[in-house]
Amino acid sequence: MPEAASLPVDDPRPPRKLYRSSDGRWLGGVARGLAGHLGLPVIWVRLVFVGLFMANGLGALLYAAFWFFVPLGIGGVGDHKPPLVATEASPGGRRRLVARKPDRGQILALLLMVIVSMVFVSSVNLGSAAKAYLVPAVLVAAGVALVWRQADNARRARWVEVGRRRRTLTLLRAAGGVLLVTAGVSAIFVLQGSAAHLGAVLQAALAVLVGITLLAGPYLVRMTQDLSEERLMRIRAQERAEVAAHVHDSVLHTLTLIQRNADNANEVRRLARAQERDLRTWLYKPEGTGKDEADEPDTVAEAVRRNAAEVEDKHGVPIEVVVVGDCPLDERTSAQMQAAREAMVNAAKYGGEGGAVQVYAEVEGRTVFVSVRDRGPGFDMDSIPADRMGVRESIIGRMERNGGTARLRAVPGGGTEVELEMERAEKTS
Amino acid sequence: MSDATEANGTTGADAGGRHVRVVLVDDHRMFRAGVQAEIGQTAETGVEVVGEAADVDQAVTVITATRPEVVLLDVHLPGGGGVEVLRRCAALTADAEQPVRFLALSVSDAAEDVIGVIRGGARGYVTKTITGTDLVDSIFRVQEGDAVFSPRLAGFVLDAFASTDAPPVDEDLDRLTQREREVLRLIARGYAYKEIAKQLFISVKTVESHVSAVLRKLQLSNRHELTRWATARRLV
């Protein structure tokens, strides 16, 4: 069955409210919405509608009622991403052609429906008087449908970003709808035999319209402006509330801790720095809330910053990080990051008195360079006993095992600098 | 500088014969007070704070009225930010006789903020975590016409030039020389100018001139970008 892809998925949304489906729909999305709501294949629902349509057009009436009253929503049958709508669609290759442009498919369906109804109407023998009114009535209906569809699209644009160039299309549509309705209404007039007065009536109608526009226009413009302004304000207020919540949560908490630890300078400094860093990541990174510390970093810059933050927190020594460029982590650079972390720990432990530890990382082409520098007392490499593995194994050894180099400069009294250089692994990601 | 000493007549001889008149521009009163307390002891530091401002309009008024030698400029200010102050004081900055020099003093971590003020004509950038002595030092260096870069700014500059390096439009102007790059890297690694000089076997003056060259290129590359932008749109 070609509809297999659009069978309902088995996670029932808790509040099963009826929505019209905004994607993959032919007309108003009523059938898809209903199918999703009832847990039936769409084709069944559609067939039922067609069947009801045969019964004196009841189906059309029902469909129109649904269209009118049920709000447009996302989903309906299954949760398809918009591009997926393309391939699922329905029987026959015809729709697969228009797959990427669902709108055209919908217009086609609309036209098809109009034609079918025309055929249906002409084949059914109504009274000639009633029959005469049918064509204009259908015209009016088509016009109304066109305009209503547009309202749907405007709604859908809230979920699916619709480009600017669609504007002309919507304008065109509105104009088409109005034209159809006007034509239909005029035709009814003509049929009623009041064609002679048509001109006068149209003029009067136009005059009334212009009058209403003049009277209500400013209000309408004002209203839309107010509305958009209000929306903007609401978005701002929401953002402010979010900031306030964050500040409340973490900053106040930290301030309390600081008050409690007022006589412990190191603890206060540590808290303040941690809080500053947290707030910074939160402020200057739009999406990263700085709270999801749990997940592993996957780029060099992230890893350096994360390591520095952790060492800073643990040892209470400020670490200033400067990162130039970035690249994804691989095996080799991960090893380098571990070595860098070890170097930071050493710097914080033994060189922290001289001031902030400076970490500099640079990704240039295929080379990743990290320098960790402190202004502590420094040390003499040769004077370290052979059994002390910290520097030899964790830093130099680790770098060399992974094909990198490590250089140490430790001038007594002038601080220590560790330089780590590593080529990135061959495979590009 | 004669008017400076006369405005400052009571303080008498200043630290090491150095003297500089400074205007503080920052929208946080507490911060201004803190900086004032830390650098404002004219007798010890040689820095005299002649004016303060909290927003762009005030800043322009105060700077025009007092004609300081150095302005400590916050990047984020009500009324358009530090960039706006720089734009409106462009005539004073360009003045050949007694130029007003700007030193950005920022808490912001965002590269575009910092690069923005530097390109706007600020002579340097330091972070608000800087110590009082370092700040005084930076102020004097800026007064003498040198550029002051914090490690973070050096990182930003390297990044900025790395990203514009791909299409080498104007090699002479837009690109940093190998030496300048080296100097910037060392600044980013936390070296002081003196240490850089020792490391590269050059004089401190040479380091300073390299840094100034970087600053000039940063501004020039901005001008070139502008010209390119304008020509692309047939505005020129």
Automatic annotation (TrEMBL), chain A:
Domain called Histidine kinase/HSP90-like ATPase: residue spans: 337-423
Gene Ontology biological process: phosphorelay signal transduction system
Transmembrane in keyword set: yes
Membrane-spanning segments: 43-70, 105-124, 130-148, 169-191, 197-221
Top-level taxon of the source organism: Bacteria
A Pfam family per the record: PspC
GO molecular function: kinase activity
Record has Membrane as a keyword: yes
Domain Phage shock protein PspC N-terminal: residue ranges: 16-71
InterPro entries: HATPase_C_sf, HATPase_dom, Phageshock_PspC_N, Sensor_HK_TwoCompSys
Keywords: Kinase, Membrane, Transferase, Transmembrane, Transmembrane helix, Two-component regulatory system
Name by which UniProt lists this protein: PspC domain-containing protein
Source organism (scientific name): Streptomyces broussonetiae
Automatic annotation (TrEMBL), chain B:
Segment forming the signal sequence: none
GO annotation (BP), single: regulation of DNA-templated transcription
Keyword Hydrolase assigned: no
Positions of the Response regulatory domain: 21-143
Modified residues (4-aspartylphosphate): D74
All residue ranges annotated as the HTH luxR-type domain in the record: 169-234
SMART domains reported for this sequence: HTH_LUXR, REC
InterPro entries in UniProt: CheY-like_superfamily (IPR011006), NreC/VraR/RcsB-like_REC (IPR058245), Sig_transdc_resp-reg_C-effctor (IPR016032), Sig_transdc_resp-reg_receiver (IPR001789), Tscrpt_reg_LuxR_C (IPR000792), WalR-like (IPR039420)
Name of protein: Response regulator
Organism: Streptomyces broussonetiae
